[in-house]
């Protein structure tokens, strides 16, 4: 009897010490407990016992309930100089997109929408995509961009390993594997993944992807844009073949295309020209004509000013390519694409581009001279919301049907857009 009591007492003491230890550890180092919980949920999801390890079930439930909310089907209209812009909401989403695709069959349009929080909406149902354990949502991180290569889907992610190693990676959803990753960022306390870039354009046997210099007031991270040995602050030219085969990317599979970039979030190809939009500092957002081997100046030159103290940068420096246009004040350009066909035909003597903006809360129509490659005009269509991404087709081009195309708007959803009433 005494032995049984002693055994129970020893079990109680062991349990008490164990619980006390983890209570103290959890109080002093909550990250250890949080990481342990995250790891357990990650394993349970991989085993098929739960549906998500990042998102709470109520978040997914709320997203699905948003699909059922009534939407105003009436068009709003913004008058332009010689034509008008019409828009209306077609899908409710109270989050930010990392990109989306639109397909069309005989019956309906199918939207495949990816969110920065790691969720995907398809057929009006939200679910968490398969994500690597080391994805990090700290410092404005998450799923920052998506793209397709031969129907395989890839995510540009922000990641964290150990205590202070923040970096970027490309993750294949087809095989749930990280294929590429950058080095750890210096000055980890001032990392800001809002500046990670993610601009993508598909070429014949390759593609370009921007990796920004993601910082908030960090000269150390900022300087990486001029460091040829760093991938930050660059457009990277990747070969397609290893992505088609879902192979690990080696240094033989990519080269630095251009450097001196801060945060390019959009790029498009017009005939044989590459045009991108890039966030500047405080002012100085840019439209750039991209050329292989060129240096676009960050952080040596900019038409913007430094945050906090407002000091100016140099405007012109030797061996630096100047932007085609610099926005003052900032508009925070998020995407750029070719104009839809009806607008392109209206302006057929010029290159016609459409640009979305976050801070500017507007869609811009930019015309560029085909020979001189200088900006002819830029027209602003104020919508009053933060415009994020264009809906793309399976070839990563602007999806358009019956002169309509689609954009995502932060905390609002997906909108149908069209130009008309040409004068």
Briefly characterize the structure:
The chain has 423 residues and is an alpha+beta fold.
Query: What's the structural domain tally?
Result: 2
Annotated CATH architecture of the largest domain: 6 Propeller
Shape: globular
> Strand order within the widest sheet?
1-2-25-24-23-3-4-5-6
Helix content: 10-25%
Radius of gyration in whole Å, from Cα? 24 Å
Record field, number of beta strands: 25
Largest sheet, in brief, is: 9 strands, mixed
CATH class of the largest domain: Mainly Beta
**Straight-line N-to-C gap:** 99 Å
Instruction: Work out the helix count.
Output: 6
Let me know the CATH homologous superfamily of the largest domain. Answer: TolB, C-terminal domain
The averaged pLDDT comes out at 91
Beta-strand content: 35-45%
| Unreliable sequence segments | none
Structure description:
This protein has 423 residues and is of the alpha+beta class. The chain has two domains: 1-45; 76-420, TolB, C-terminal domain (Neuraminidase, 6 Propeller), CATH 2.120.10. The chain is 16% helix and 39% strand. It contains six helices and 25 strands. The strands form five sheets. A nine-stranded mixed sheet has the order 1-2-25-24-23-3-4-5-6, covered by helices on one side. It has a four-stranded antiparallel sheet with strand order 7-8-9-10, with no helix packed on it. Strand 21 (362-369) and strand 22 form a beta hairpin. Helix 1 packs across helix 2. The N and C termini lie far apart (99 Å).
């Amino acid at each position: 009897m005494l032995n049984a009591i002693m055994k129970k007492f020893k079990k109680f003491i062991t349990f008490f010490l164990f619980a006390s230890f983890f209570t103290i550890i959890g109080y002093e180092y909550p990250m250890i407990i949080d990481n342990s919980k995250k790891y357990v949920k990650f394993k349970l999801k991989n085993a098929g016992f739960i549906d998500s390890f990042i998102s709470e079930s109520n978040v997914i439930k709320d997203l699905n309930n948003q699909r059922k909310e009534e939407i105003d089907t009436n068009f709003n209209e913004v008058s332009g100089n010689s034509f008008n812009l019409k828009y209306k909401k077609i899908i409710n989403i109270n989050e930010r997109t990392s990109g989306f695709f639109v397909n069309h069959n005989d019956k309906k349009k199918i939207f495949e929408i990816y969110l920065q929080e790691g969720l995907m909406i398809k057929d009006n149902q939200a679910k968490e995509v398969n994500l690597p354990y080391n994805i990090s949502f700290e410092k404005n991180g998450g799923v920052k961009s998506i793209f397709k290569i031969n129907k395989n889907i890839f995510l540009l992610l922000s990641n964290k390993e150990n205590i202070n190693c923040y970096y970027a990676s490309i993750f294949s959803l087809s095989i749930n594997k990280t294929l590429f990753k950058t080095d750890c960022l210096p000055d980890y306390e001032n990392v800001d993944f809002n500046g990670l870039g993610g601009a993508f354009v598909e070429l014949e046997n390759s593609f370009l992807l921007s990796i920004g210099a993601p910082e908030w007031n960090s000269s150390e991270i900022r300087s990486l844009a001029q460091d040829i040995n760093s991938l930050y602050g660059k457009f990277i030219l990747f070969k397609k073949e290893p992505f088609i085969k879902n192979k690990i990317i080696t240094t033989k599979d990519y080269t630095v295309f251009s450097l001196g970039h801060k945060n390019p979030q959009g790029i498009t190809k017009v005939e044989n020209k590459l045009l991108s939009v890039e966030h500047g500092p405080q002012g100085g957002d840019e439209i750039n004509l991209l050329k292989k081997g060129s240096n676009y100046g960050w952080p040596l030159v900019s038409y913007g000013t430094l945050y906090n103290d407002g000091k100016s940068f140099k405007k012109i420096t030797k061996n630096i390519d100047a932007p085609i246009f610099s926005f003052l004040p900032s508009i925070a350009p998020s995407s750029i694409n070719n104009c839809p066909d009806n607008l392109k035909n209206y302006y057929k003597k010029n290159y016609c581009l459409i640009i979305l903006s976050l801070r500017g809360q507007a869609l811009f129509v930019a015309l560029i001279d085909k020979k001189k490659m200088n900006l002819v005009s830029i027209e602003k269509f104020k919508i009053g919301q933060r415009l994020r991404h264009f809906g793309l087709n399976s070839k990563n081009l602007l999806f358009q049907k019956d002169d309509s195309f689609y954009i995502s708007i932060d905390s609002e959803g997906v909108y149908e857009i069209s130009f008309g009433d040409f004068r």
